[in-house]
Amino acid sequence: MTVLHPRPQFVRENWESLDGVWGFAFDDSQVGVTEQWYDGLPEQTTIQVPFTYETKASGIHDESHHATVWYEKEVTLTTDKNVLLHFEGADYATTVWVNGKVVGEHHGCYTAFSFNIADYMVEGKNRITVRVQDSMDTAQPRGKQRWIKDNFGCWYVQTTGIWKSVWLEYVSPIHIDYVKMTPDVDNRKIDLELETNAWHDGLIAEATITFDGELIEKVSAFVKDGVATMQASVLAKGDPWSMKLWNTETPNLYDIHFSLIEENTEIDHVTSYFGMRKIAIEGDKILLNNEELYQRLILDQGYWQDSDLTPPSVSALELDIDKILEMGYNGVRKHQKVEDNRFLYLCDKKGVLVWSEVGSTYSFSDKAVANFTSEWLEIVKQNYNHPSIITWVPFNESWGVSDIHVNKKQQQFTEGIYYLTKAFDGMRPVITNDGWDHTISDIITLHDYEEIGELFTKRYTDREKLLSNAFQHNRFRHPFAKNYVDKGQPVIISEFGGIAFQSESGWGYGNQVKDEASFIERFDKITGAIQALDYISGFCYTQVSDVQQEINGLLTIDRKDKVDLSAIRAINERRKK
Questions:
Q1: What is the C-alpha separation between 485 and 488, in angstroms, rounded?
Q2: What range(s) does the Glycoside hydrolase family 2 immunoglobulin-like beta-sandwich domain occupy (predicted)?
Q3: Domains, the chain, with CATH or none
Q4: Which of 242, 275, 257 is nearest to 210 (CA)?
Q5: Could you say which DSSP state residue 507 is in?
Q6: What is the pTM of this model?
Q7: CA angle 441, 416, 283 (to 5 degrees)
Q8: pLDDT tens digit sequence for 272-310
Q9: In a 3-state reduction of DSSP, which class is residue 568?
Q10: How far is it between the farthest Cα atoms of the chain?
């Protein structure tokens, strides 16, 4: 990765990347703890973090499954400040030692986690040891990672161990731990909630808002029980017309600086940003900043040729976003993955709408419910502040809840996740089960890989018939689970297309096309059929790029254009509202 901060929305100046060469060892016999590998790895090789051992970029490139892996790195530290050790993502059960002492554990794949290692480090050289265990268990959130020996369908090589950046951050003993920023467009204000890492008397929190270097507002509040709440105007000098909205055309971002003050001395400082945007639903319409929004989305699984789920660089992330915009899309459905924070930063900066998902489980049990719920709530909290994220999508195509059409417990599980999400985030729509068999859902989304435009038109012309649940679509699925009905929500075709060129290997949806003209013709007809339906609020085309055996991208896996992207753009932009 280039030197862009791993979390551009929560920046302290004093940090250090630990990406690069680490010691590495497989532990297939599960002897590492017994033999105290945390005191030094035996017979270690090296690996390039943050790439997993399955990838070519790691320097190992072994695609077979190894359930337990170990990492080791020596770092030089100074003890005059507290040090936070950050992991942006490691799959799945992670244990961390510093100088042979256990620092902490974390379970999950798609969420970031941190440990304060101040009590474990010494002045000078320190050894960080990490063990990650990742089984083929379908009760843990997997996403598109296979759980059998070989790839199949639309499931690919597993991701084991550290797969996102690792870094150090130097902080004061009492510091800002989390900030929640909630824009209030109608009242031209921003609500702020700041949390510290510990309760401490006599602290004051300050927030200073600027836009293009001009001071907008400065507010402060006492920290009580580790929390400070503030509200600030976003109007320049009180001018009621000066609010800068975030949208796809003008993605304005306000800068905000948070300070923690003790006895008139600043003990912590964090730089961030926010966007003033409102996402709402009125009847069957989706509104962005109180104006009707038509979503032209593309599905993005975030895989690369030599590094799988890990982006090879920040420039690779930016290339994908720029290609998406070049093709005339205004948003992305980040499918079965929580992408690098720098991707979300770039979407914030460039005005790209994001639907945020999580990797699915593939079984239903008490264990799966607990694993999923814990990780999902972490995701919502960690990514809450990004203006680009406008929709939460916890479930996809009944994965992990395969009997949801009739199974009351599975229905209640999706309802529970819906309400838990709403309890933390009252702003954004939640789609409980993208594709079919919806329970409680703010938007009704349907998946349909029909390849003939006229049949699309015939099938979707009558909204009432379509959503009556007497109708079955993609693979004989119903729009709603049993005992749930249409309540007039917006409707989006959130998967369609998936066109693939003729090939001796790999697959796409429908019959493969022989040449570019055939590709554009089919793309034009199926996209046009959706655009012609007034009640449909948007679409999501499958997909940005090829992924391993799934060769239905508009780009190849190495991001080469398959067709004339200007033709794709012209078709997509025929309907903008």
A1: 9
A2: 174-277
A3: 15-171 (2.60.120.260), 176-274 (2.60.40.10), 292-572 (3.20.20.80)
A4: 257
A5: B
A6: 0.96
A7: 20
A8: 999 999 999 999 999 999 999 999 999 999 999 999 999
A9: helix
A10: 72
